[in-house]
C-alpha cells in the first residue's frame, strides 16, 4: 500500500491476499492519514470514516442510479457493449439500483413481507432447518460449515419466503454467484459471459415460475407481488421478474458471509455460551460481509472539500466505518456488550437492507443453536477469505467437534 497525503490518494491492490484476508490494518492507516481519498485502482473517491459513510448513505444528493438524471453522452459513457446488454438491462430494473419514485413504489410492495413481525413467523422453520442441517454432520466430527450450514440456511429460507421450490436452491445459488461476480475487481470475459448466461437463465426460470403462480397462487411473497401487479399495474412483468431474482440473490449472498464470518469470530474469541443479540450485532460490526458500497453524485456538489461532478462515483467503505475508533472505542476488540453499536453493515437511508430483519433472525437462531448442539466446536484450520474484496466472505470454514 502507498499513501500519498499531498494528493489524497492511495494505491492499494484489492486482489492482494494480504489485504483482502485482513483489510483492517490498511483501513486504520488510511483513516489516520487520508480518510477521504482517491483509490487509484478503482479511480474514485472513497470514504473511510463512520461519520462520512453514515452521512453519505443518507444523503439524497447521492444515489445508486444516475441515468434517470443524466444521459450517457452527458456523462461521457460509452454505449453498453451488446454482449452485456441482458445483464445491465436486468440491473436497471433492480430495486437495489433504483431511485425514487420508482424505488419507493417497488420497495413499498416488498417491504411489508420483511418487517420484523412478518419474518418472526419463520422462526420455527429456521430452527427446524438449522437442526436438520446439524443432524447431517453431527457424527462426522469435522465439516466445512460454509456449504454445510452457512449457505443453505439463507438460501432455503428465502426460497420458502418467496414460494420457490427449495430443491432449486443449488441451481439458484450457482446463477447468483455468476451474477454477483460482475462486481469483483478485475473481472474478465469469462466472468462476463457467465453472468449474462446466468441472468438470462435465472430470469427465464422466474418468468416460467411466475406463470405457474398466476394459475395457482399461494400464501407467499411471489403470489403477493403477482396480486399487486394484477390489481393496479403497480408492477410490470419485467419488474416482477427482476425483483424476485434480486430477492433470491440479495436474500442470501451477504447473509451467508455474515453467518460464516460470525461463527469464525465467535470461535476465535472463544465465545460458546449465552450468544445473544449483542453478539450477533458485534459480529456484524467486527467483520462485515460487505466492505464497499458505491453511489453516484446526482448533481454537482461539494462534500468534505471535494468538488464532485454529476455522475461521479463515490466509494463508501462499510468495513472501515465499522472499525472507526472515532465512533467505536477499542474498535479491534470484540465487545458483545457494546452499546450503542451503530454498525453500518446493512447500510442506511432509503437503501437500508430490506432483508435486515430476516438476516438478523437467521443469525440469532442458527448461530447459538450450532454452539449448543456442538459444545466442542473449534477451528480445524485457519480460514481464508475469498478473492472478492467488497464481498468479504470466507472460502471455507472447516471445523472439528
Query: For the largest beta sheet, what order do the strands appear in spatially?
Result: 1-2-3-4-10-7-5
CATH class placement: Mainly Alpha
Broad shape: globular
Mean pLDDT: 92
CATH H-tier superfamily: Cytochrome P450
Task: Give a written overview of the molecule.
The protein has 401 residues and is an alpha+beta fold. The chain has a single domain, classed as Cytochrome p450, CATH 1.10.630.10. The protein contains 17 helices and twelve strands. The strands form three sheets. It has a seven-stranded mixed beta sheet with strand order 1-2-3-4-10-7-5, with helices on both faces. It is globular and about 60 Å long.
What key phrases describe this protein's structure?
single chain; 401 residues; Cytochrome p450; 7-stranded mixed sheet; 12 strands; 49% helix
Amino acid at each position: 500500500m502507498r499513501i500519498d497525503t499531498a494528493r489524497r490518494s492511495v494505491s492499494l491492490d484489492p486482489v492482494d491476499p494480504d489485504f483482502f484476508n485482513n483489510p483492517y490494518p490498511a483501513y486504520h492507516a488510511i483513516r489516520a492519514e487520508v480518510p477521504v481519498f482517491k483509490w487509484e485502482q478503482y479511480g474514485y473517491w472513497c470514504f473511510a470514516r463512520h461519520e462520512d459513510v453514515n452521512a453519505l448513505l443518507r444523503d439524497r444528493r447521492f444515489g445508486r442510479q444516475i441515468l434517470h438524471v443524466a444521459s450517457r453522452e452527458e456523462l461521457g459513457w460509452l454505449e453498453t457493449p451488446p454482449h452485456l446488454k441482458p445483464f445491465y438491462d436486468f440491473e436497471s430494473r433492480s430495486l437495489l439500483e433504483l431511485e425514487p419514485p420508482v424505488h419507493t413504489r417497488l420497495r413499498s410492495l416488498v417491504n411489508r413481507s420483511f418487517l420484523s413481525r412478518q419474518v418472526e413467523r419463520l422462526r420455527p422453520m429456521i430452527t427446524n432447518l438449522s437442526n436438520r442441517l446439524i443432524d447431517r454432520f453431527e457424527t462426522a466430527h469435522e465439516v466445512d460449515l460454509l456449504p454445510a450450514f452457512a449457505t443453505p440456511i439463507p438460501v432455503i429460507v428465502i426460497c420458502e419466503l418467496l414460494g420457490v421450490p427449495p430443491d432449486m436452491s443449488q441451481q439458484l445459488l450457482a446463477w447468483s454467484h455468476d451474477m454477483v461476480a460482475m462486481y469483483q475487481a478485475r473481472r474478465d470475459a469469462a466472468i462476463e459471459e457467465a453472468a449474462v448466461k446466468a441472468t438470462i437463465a435465472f430470469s427465464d426460470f422466474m418468468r416460467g415460475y411466475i406463470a405457474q403462480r398466476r394459475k395457482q397462487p399461494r400464501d407467499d411473497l411471489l403470489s403477493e407481488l403477482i396480486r399487486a401487479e394484477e390489481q393496479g399495474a403497480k408492477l410490470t412483468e419485467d419488474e416482477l421478474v427482476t425483483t424476485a431474482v434480486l430477492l433470491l440473490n440479495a436474500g442470501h449472498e451477504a447473509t451467508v458471509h455474515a453467518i460464516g464470518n460470525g461463527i469464525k469470530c465467535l470461535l476465535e474469541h472463544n465465545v460458546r455460551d449465552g450468544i445473544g443479540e449483542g453478539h450477533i450485532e458485534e459480529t456484524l460490526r467486527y467483520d462485515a460481509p460487505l466492505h464497499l458500497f458505491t453511489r453516484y453524485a446526482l448533481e454537482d456538489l461539494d462534500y468534505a472539500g471535494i468538488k464532485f461532478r454529476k455522475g461521479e462515483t463515490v466509494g463508501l467503505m462499510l468495513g472501515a466505518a465499522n472499525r472507526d475508533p472515532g465512533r467505536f472505542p477499542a474498535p479491534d476488540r470484540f465487545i458483545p456488550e457494546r452499546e450503542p453499536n451503530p454498525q453500518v453493515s446493512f447500510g442506511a437511508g432509503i437503501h437500508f437492507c430490506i432483508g435486515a430483519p430476516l438476516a438478523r433472525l437467521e443469525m440469532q437462531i442458527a448461530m447459538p443453536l450450532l454452539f449448543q448442539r456442538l459444545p466442542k466446536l473449534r477451528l480445524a484450520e485457519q480460514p481464508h477469505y475469498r478473492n472478492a474484496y467488497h464481498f468479504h466472505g470466507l472460502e471455507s470454514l472447516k471445523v472439528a467437534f
